[in-house]
Specification:
Layout: H1 3-9, H2 13-35, H3 48-55, H4 69-72, H5 77-82, H6 88-102, E1 115-116, E2 119-128, E3 142-147, H7 157-162, E4 170-172, E5 176-178, E6 183-184, E7 192-196, H8 213-233
Antiparallel strand pairs: 1-2, 2-3, 2-7, 4-5, 6-7
């Protein structure tokens, strides 16, 4: 038996119990701290009101009840219930979106950096293609990207390399930006557009209930079958 094992074996039971409980409490505290990590706001989602508006399902009506960014990402389901966020499925939806945002998973526009007054401008640029490409276009072919850079801002070579394409948007045809909630700028021929914060932009639509939903499906179908049999006999 190792010296450490002998020392632990000789410890009083009460002391071992105390150490075990302290270790367990520490692990629980660590898990709690991890789950309550407050993410930073983004240029497209700078405050609670914007977040609640984006995820939809009329949650923006509760903006006054959750005034701070810290409270938005720390309130528990029971606390939200006491604040009047009802029904339960609405709270679950809010907590689901909250966790996605905490993990850097955004809806359209969430990754935009250059945003002013809840409006972001995007445009089409051409960058050199992959030099290792073996496609028919060849290694020197240019590819088109949709980036979040205002048209009046010049792009030098170093900035060009750092640019990332906007998630959810693509170029159709020669230079037309397509994607959800894209508003083309007049006179730009489709190569420049804006994305504005709108109610429900990130909303996940609820599925349509069939035969009363999962909870009542068996009961509803049984009643329907009995009704069909009754009509068949009469």
């Amino acid at each position: 038996m190792k010296p450490n094992s002998i020392a632990i074996h000789r410890m009083p039971t009460s002391l071992l119990t105390c150490i075990f409980r302290s270790h367990t409490a520490f692990r629980q505290l660590h898990r709690q701290i991890s789950t309550t990590r407050i993410p930073s706001p983004t240029p497209f989602v700078p405050d609670t009101k914007t977040f609640l508006s984006l995820i939809g399902r009329n949650l923006s009506q509760h903006a006054a009840k959750i005034p701070t960014w810290e409270s938005l990402f720390s309130l528990k389901s029971m606390q939200l219930r006491k604040l009047g966020v009802e029904p339960a499925r609405t709270r679950r939806y809010l907590l689901w979106w909250r966790e996605k945002f905490r993990n850097g998973e955004y809806g359209i526009g969430g990754d935009l950096k250059d945003v002013k007054d809840s409006v972001a401008q995007v445009r089409v640029i051409e960058v050199p293609g992959d030099r290792s490409s073996k496609t028919l276009a060849g290694p020197d072919a240019m590819k088109k990207l949709v980036v979040n850079v205002p048209p009046e801002l010049p792009i030098n070579e170093s900035k060009l390399r750092a640019l990332k394409p906007v998630n959810g948007l693509k170029v159709k045809g020669a230079h037309t930006i397509v994607g959800p909630f894209v508003e083309p700028v007049k006179g730009a021929g489709g190569s420049v557009a804006v994305i504005k914060v709108q109610e429900g932009m990130w909303e996940q639509r609820r599925g349509q209930k069939v035969d009363g939903g999962e909870r009542r499906k068996v009961q509803v179908r049984r009643k329907r079958k009995l009704e069909e049999l009754r009509k068949a006999k009469s």
